[in-house]
Amino acid sequence: MASVTSAKPPAVEDIAAQLTEAVLEHRLQPGAKLREDEVGEIFGVSRTLVRQALRAMAYEGLLTIEKNRGAFVAKPTLKEAREVFQARALLEPTTARAAAERTTDADIALLEQHIEEEHAALHRDEAGRALKLSGDFHLEIARIADQHTIEQFLRQLVARSSLVIALYWRRRNALCESNAHHALVDALRGGDGDSAEELMKGHLMDIFSQLDLRDRDEGTTSLKDALKR
Amino acid sequence: MASVTSAKPPAVEDIAAQLTEAVLEHRLQPGAKLREDEVGEIFGVSRTLVRQALRAMAYEGLLTIEKNRGAFVAKPTLKEAREVFQARALLEPTTARAAAERTTDADIALLEQHIEEEHAALHRDEAGRALKLSGDFHLEIARIADQHTIEQFLRQLVARSSLVIALYWRRRNALCESNAHHALVDALRGGDGDSAEELMKGHLMDIFSQLDLRDRDEGTTSLKDALKR
DNA sequence: CCACAGTGGATCGTATACAATTTGCGCTCA
DNA sequence: TGAGCGCAAATTGTATACGATCCACTGTGG
Fold first, then answer.
1. How far apart are alpha carbons B204 and B212 in whole angstroms?
2. pLDDT, mean of residues B40-59
3. CB under 8 Å to A104, separation ≥6 — which residues?
4. Which residues pair with A211 in a beta bridge?
5. Which residues are CB-contacts of A212 (< 8 A; sequence separation ≥ 6)?
6. Cα B43 from chain centroid (whole Å)
7. Is A168 helix (H, G, I), strand (E, B) or coil?
8. What is the DSSP code string of chain B?
9. Which residue segments constitute the domains of chain B, with CATH numbers given?
10. Are B48 and B90 in contact (CB under 8 A)?
11. Does residue A196 contact residue A99 with C-beta atoms inside 8 Å?
């Protein structure tokens, strides 16, 4: 878990941000438990603030809070995994189109820097970090489109996508998609809304198709039930 | 504000639910302040639970929490108002189409009952209550479509729509849309996805066009900026 | 040897106490 | 008279204390 480098007073958002980063980078695996005392001790705050942070993350769908049991990194079911990408498929292509109409040179530079960092992270064998940066790329497009509401929804969906990938990713070999991001930047630079929309649609389908979402034995869905017969 | 009719121990969800209902029914106007002590006294709980409820509502976009100042019923800006309906336009038509494929007789009965209640509320001159029921109708469709993730997003959007309507509704005369809901039910009953999608799209455009979203002096949107020139 | 009830420790849920911040009022002084 | 300073009341932010719940362990009885 991330160390506390700040001088004195970490706020709720800091706690949530660091924990979120750890989840998105797969340093905290789905199912991992986050005890309030433990987290509080790490950040040097009382449980009050920790609870706020954990609840905020639960609202984002990153954690599951079970009454009297504690907070756990969420484990999306197959159905939830499909829903996440179905929702993204509804929101992102149109948003990419809108972004194409408004992209500035500064935006392009920022996006390219993003891709660069992602590439560098991969080179350093930091797959988790690369994945997070890849997600941020998608959020950046929503920001360019100046659609704050959709951006907030996408924040949740991208985060939950990270959990889905942690659970259902097929191959272990790295990414295959930095091309897709490059192509998107080209479309945005050219102000080509049609292409941007189509590229985004295809990109999402690509990711989705690389997940293993066949029905399977649902993990820890009760050994008891499995043996009941 | 709603009285506490329950016997003994109101939980966080109860508090949030009652407050939310009050906002959706316009018994609490945008800008209204919710003091923690006051709310706590009404519900007979400590500020701890009230704070949880208020934060939950803030995540839904119903309240704005200003640090050290308190919680206020949100006042969506023009931009936010537009964004809410743009997001709904992306999510709801496709969801209505999906719902048409899965609608059962029980669903139809429930939807019709909904319309009936809405009508009755209007007859009793409870415009706020009718508005809330109208929102629930839209959520019900997402539920029928079995899209839990989208339903959650829509819950936020519908709730915020209620605030938008409180602020930007043009005419004071009642509703004009119970027809639209009837037509949707017909399409769903017939399993006609195409119609359902089109009807929903038109319905949203209708509502949107009845809002007064011309640029205007944005209330408290920073006197400072307004005087800067 | 296994099943099961009792018990203790760990952990979360809620209330309360205290600290920090804001805000409005009144006082002073030019 | 009016502007500015400062204090006090009100309100929120954070920490801590206490109670409730869950869970694993242990010991006993069959």
1. 15
2. 96
3. none
4. A169
5. A168, A169, A170
6. 23
7. helix
8. -----SSS---HHHHHHHHHHHHHTTSS-TT-EE-HHHHHHHHT--HHHHHHHHHHHHHTTSEEEETTTEEEE----HHHHHHHHHHHHHHHHHHHHHHHTT--HHHHHHHHHHHHHHHHHHHTT-HHHHHHHHHHHHHHHHHHTT-HHHHHHHHHHHHHHHHHHHHHB---S--S-HHHHHHHHHHHHTT-HHHHHHHHHHHHHHHHHTB--S----TTS-HHHHH--
9. 12-73 (1.10.10.10), 78-209 (1.20.120.530)
10. no
11. yes
User: What would the pLDDT profile of A82-126 be if each residue is shown by its tens digit?
Assistant: 999 999 999 999 999 999 999 999 999 999 999 999 999 989 999
**Residue B4 CB neighbour total at 10 angstroms:** 15
CB neighbour list of residue A75: distance below 8 Å, 6 or more residues apart: A30, A31, A64, A163, A167, A219
Of B143, B156, B141, the residue nearest B96 (C-alpha): B141
Does A148 contact B at CB distance below 8 Å? Answer: yes
- Kindly state whether B153 is in contact with chain A, defined as any CB-CB distance less than 8 angstroms: yes
Least CB-CB distance to A83: which of B55, B79, B148?
Answer: B148
- Bases of strand D lying below 7 A from some protein CB: 11-17, 20-23
- Residue pair B196/B184 in contact (Cβ under 8 Å)? The answer is yes
User: What is chain A's length?
Assistant: 229
Helix ranges (DSSP H) in chain A = 12-24, 36-43, 47-59, 78-100, 105-123, 127-144, 148-168, 178-189, 193-209, 223-227
Phi, psi of A72 (to 5 degrees): -130, 145
Backbone angles phi, psi at A67, to 5 degrees: -55, 130
A184, amino acid identity:
L
Query: What pLDDT, in 10s, does the model give residues A30-83?
Result: 999 999 999 999 999 999 999 999 999 999 999 999 999 999 999 999 999 999
For A142-194, the pLDDT digits (tens) are: 999 999 999 999 999 999 999 999 999 887 555 566 789 999 999 999 999 99
The Cα–Cα gap between B61 and B57 comes to 6
Amino acid at A88: R
- Assess A23–B contact: CB distance below 8 Å, yes or no: no
User: Which of helix, strand or coil describes residue A213?
Assistant: coil
Among the partner-chain residues B59, B83, B157, the one whose CB lies closest to the CB of A147 is B83
B12 touches strand C (CB under 7 A): yes
Query: Could you give the C-alpha distances from B153 to A179, B26, B91, B148, in angstroms and in order?
Result: 31, 21, 9, 9
CA distance B129 to B117: 9
